[in-house]
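in:
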């Protein structure tokens, strides 16, 4: 075992996710002057803010005995103190204090993860810090764009994050899983066009001259309360590898030019989704639904958030059942239909990222201590009470309730 590798240091990918990527670790309002433990890509991480407000992410394992630092406390402006023997670390992960001695061991460090705060999320890069380009943070700007409004939640999903990617790129399931809200027969009857490049996959579906499903009929009535005719509906899904999906959705009065680009006689929303692997078969699923109509009406924000939550709960039940089926049938290869084209391309892009790291282009480090940190963090997590934001869909503050705070997830 090398004593010179900080706990939590990155290693080549050996799991169904790349490490060299930005992952949403938390909503911005979740990261405060408190210690927030979270597991990302099998790595226990502790998040907090310095006194100056900068978000910080350290490996959640003390260099000395691998006790989770999240069991300690904050000290001074930017330091975290281990709750076991009192060793302190600054925001860069360097030890600044050791009990009963003046000399600080130069190897006393814990891994500090690159962090970026953007689009109301705190993003963490679990791979090679030298590759952590802030320009690669996924585009979810609708979350804090003043021309859009919305709200959302976090789901702790007990499934492989890729199953959610598959689900979001597959519109046909809406007809069967969400028949009482957003489903419509046209979802499996109209064409779904898939395009891709080396980092993204885009799926486009237009349904023209159809009767509106209940969810969209009510939304259109927000702007046009007397309209009860047919609609033109669109769903344009953009996947950004490895795990972010932004869906341009909406409806307009039929025949008013929406397919040609004039959406003035309609309502438009964006379903914002980013899934952060926790382990190989669990993930943190952050979502927000942003809209461009009735921006100051909090009742619409609440209605949409709650409506989308119901839709996503139906997905959650289905995906967790699928995960159980996968675990009961190890080695089973999926069969693919025409409707799976988007998900197939997304998985190819993910696989390419993982392969690039395994070929030596990713982070390289002795991971002995990192794996020990994972074990220590898992044991500590088993002892901690389940956090509300981790499993029960607790709401985050609306950005209209707290203008400087975060907006949550949506459909």
């Amino acid at each position: 075992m090398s004593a010179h590798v900080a706990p939590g240091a990155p290693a080549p990918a050996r799991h169904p996710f790349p490490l060299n990527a930005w992952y949403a670790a938390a909503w911005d309002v979740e990261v405060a002057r408190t210690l927030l433990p979270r597991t990302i890509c099998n790595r226990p991480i502790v998040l907090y803010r310095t006194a100056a407000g900068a978000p910080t992410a350290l490996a959640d394992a003390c260099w000395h005995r691998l006790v989770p630092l999240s069991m300690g406390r904050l000290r001074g402006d930017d330091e975290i103190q281990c709750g076991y023997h009192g060793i302190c670390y600054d925001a860069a992960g360097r030890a600044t204090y050791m009990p009963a001695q003046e000399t600080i061991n130069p190897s006393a460090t814990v891994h500090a993860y690159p962090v970026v705060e953007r689009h109301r999320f705190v993003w963490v890069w679990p791979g090679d810090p030298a590759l952590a380009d802030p320009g690669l943070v996924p585009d979810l700007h609708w979350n804090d764009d003043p021309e859009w409004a919305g709200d959302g939640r976090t789901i702790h999903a007990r499934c492989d994050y890729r199953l959610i990617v598959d689900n979001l790129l597959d519109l046909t399931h809406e007809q069967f899983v969400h028949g009482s809200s957003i489903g419509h027969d046209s979802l499996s009857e109209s064409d779904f066009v898939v395009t891709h490049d080396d980092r993204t996959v885009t799926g486009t579906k237009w349904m023209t001259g159809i009767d509106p499903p209940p969810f969209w009929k009510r939304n259109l009535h927000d702007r046009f309360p007397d309209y009860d005719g047919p609609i033109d509906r669109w769903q344009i899904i953009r996947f950004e590898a490895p795990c972010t999906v932004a869906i341009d959705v909406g409806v307009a009065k039929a025949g008013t030019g929406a397919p040609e680009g004039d959406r003035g006689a309609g309502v438009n929303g964006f379903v914002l989704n980013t899934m952060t692997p926790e382990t190989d078969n669990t993930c943190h699923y952050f979502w927000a639904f942003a809209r461009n109509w009735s921006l100051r009406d909090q009742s619409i924000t609440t209605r949409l958030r709650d409506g989308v939550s119901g839709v996503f709960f139906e997905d959650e039940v289905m995906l967790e059942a699928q995960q159980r089926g996968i675990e009961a049938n190890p080695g089973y290869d999926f069969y693919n239909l025409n409707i799976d084209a988007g998900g197939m391309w997304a998985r190819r892009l993910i696989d390419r990222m993982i392969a690039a790291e395994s070929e030596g282009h990713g982070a390289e480090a002795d991971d002995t201590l990192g794996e020990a940190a994972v074990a220590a963090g898992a044991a500590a997590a088993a002892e901690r009470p389940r956090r509300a934001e981790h499993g029960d869909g607790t709401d985050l503050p609306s950005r209209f309730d707290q203008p400087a705070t975060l907006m949550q997830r949506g459909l």
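note: DSSP finds seven helices and 17 strands in the chain.
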